[in-house]
Amino acid sequence: MASEEGVKWWTSKIPLYGQRTMVTLRSPTTLNYRSLCLGCFWDFTSDLSLKDTAYTSLALGAHTDTTYFTDPAGLQMFHLLSHTEGSGGESLLVDGFRAAALLEKEAPDAYHVLRSTPVSTHSSGNYGISIQPGIPFPVLNEHPVTRELYQVRWNNDDRATMDQWYSEADIDAWYNAARLWTELIRRETSLYREQLRPGRPLSRQALNE
């Protein structure tokens, strides 16, 4: 990571493996960062004044970040700066594309529902803040021509009110599909846990293939 070639080699492995850890962090200035609503760097610690479960010590279920953006973050890097006399804090990772492939195989009707039903999402809670995408997106997003899955958007805590349905049957179908999806991504065989350590960041391909 001390050179441009090192960064190129390291990041080229992320699409292959879905995630990548650095043995040693030297100079993060060689990477290009995308500024989002909280800036380029998000500093997380327990702070209940921010009214967001990400800023607590609560364990969060498997989810994708920034579902409330029209163009969510595609690649994220996590770095534990300090863990003095602490315990817990494992990072939980799930291969969303593998999970989608399993869902399509095991429950094709549920897969169809999650790829065709738009889901409203938002980020709100703090005074004066409400972020929503330009349009609602399905959980599973496919290319309109090739039907290749290119994006997974799932965050149960950021889902907004879903009140636009064609029929009551559609409501039952979506919640049944969401239940099957949740059960699938909670399977022990779907989970990968990584304990972060200072000086050893973890990058993951957050949403896009």
Describe the protein.
It contains 5 helices and 9 strands, in the order ααβββααββββαββ. The protein is α+β, with helices and mostly antiparallel strands and about 210 residues long. The strands form 4 sheets. The protein has a 3-stranded antiparallel beta sheet. A two-stranded antiparallel sheet has the order 3-8. A two-stranded antiparallel sheet has the order 4-5. A hairpin with a 6-residue loop joins strand 6 (about 140) and strand 7 (about 150). Helix 3 packs across helix 4 (about 110-115), helix 3 (about 95-105) packs across helix 5 (about 170-185) and helix 4 crosses helix 5 (about 170-185). It is globular. Mean pLDDT is about 80; it is low at about 20-30.
Topology:
Elements: H1 4-12, H2 14-17, E1 19-21, E2 75-78, E3 91-94, H3 96-106, H4 108-116, E4 123-124, E5 130-131, E6 140-142, E7 149-152, H5 168-185, E8 191-194, E9 202-205
Antiparallel strand pairs: 1-9, 2-9, 3-8, 4-5, 6-7
Helix pairs in contact: 3-4, 3-5, 4-5
